[in-house]
Amino acid sequence: SVTIWIKELDLMYKTSMILRRVGAGVGIGSDMLPFEDIKKMDSFTFEADIDVHGIKYKQDIPPIISSKIAEIKDTEFMWNIDDDLLQKIKYDKADTAWVCYSDNFGNNCMILECIRSRGENKLGLKLLKMPLGVDRYVVDIVWTVYFDNQEMTVNHENVGLRVQKRTWSPISLDHVGDISILSFKLEIKVKEIQRN
């Protein structure tokens, strides 16, 4: 969705559209512009607010597999959720879709994703890249969610991690109440490296 407005006139125009190709665009129709007011101005400012609801690719993005990538080892990672994302998790109950990412961790091979899809909030772990010759890692994961002065921990054993595949947290984010602090912690222990 795109919101465009002329700052000096406080004129707002909002539309939803699909951009299918390079060069496609969206603008304000001439019937929406108050030309008599604009003629009296020396200058005016257009501003735009763009919300991307999804990206469809022509083909799958190939996984990154290289002999230069180090194998992942036992690791811990903490993701402290900022206020903007916390507000989305708590209050964005509309039928919209979005995804937010943590920093990379585990030799830059892994990332956490907080996803809103089909009316649900989910937390997922994704393996971004893999050393050449490795098919998958078998790991134990301890998922911990901290909110205000409480915490919830779930053990997730014998999880198979493959490149570009998500592993979903068993902890639901759909019942997050009126909290002010939210953090996710992962403790990953590598049990087996399966090679191809």
- Structural class by SSE content: mainly beta
Given as residue ranges, the uncertain stretches (5+ residues, pLDDT < 50) are none
SSE pattern, N- to C-terminal: EEHEEEHEEEEEEEE
Order of strands, widest sheet: 5-13-10-11
Helix content: under 10%
Cα-to-Cα separation, first versus last residue: 44 Å
Mean pLDDT comes to: 79
User: How much of the residues is beta strand, in percent?
Assistant: over 45%
Number of strands: 13
Q: Report the total helices.
A: 2
Q: What general outline do the C-alpha atoms trace?
A: elongated
Radius of gyration: 22 Å
The major pleated sheet works out as:
4 strands, antiparallel
What descriptors fit this protein?
13 strands, 196 residues, mainly beta, 2 helices, 4-stranded antiparallel sheet
Descriptive report:
The chain contains two helices and 13 strands; from the N terminus they run E-E-H-E-E-E-H-E-E-E-E-E-E-E-E. It has helices at residues 35-39, 83-91; strands spanning 2-6, 11-15, 46-50, 64-66, 75-80, 98-101, 110-117, 120-127, 129-131, 134-147, 150-161, 166-168, 182-195. Strand 1 and strand 2 form a beta hairpin. The chain is elongated. Strands 5-13-10-11 form a four-stranded antiparallel β-sheet, with no helix packed on it. A four-stranded antiparallel β-sheet has the order 6-7-8-12, with no helix packed on it. The relative contact order is 0.17. The chain is mainly beta and 196 residues long.
Would you spell out the secondary-structure blueprint of this structure?
Layout: E1 2-6, E2 11-15, H1 35-39, E3 46-50, E4 64-66, E5 75-80, H2 83-91, E6 98-101, E7 110-117, E8 120-127, E9 129-131, E10 134-147, E11 150-161, E12 166-168, E13 182-195
Parallel strand pairs: 4-9
Antiparallel strand pairs: 1-2, 1-3, 5-13, 6-7, 7-8, 8-12, 10-11, 10-13
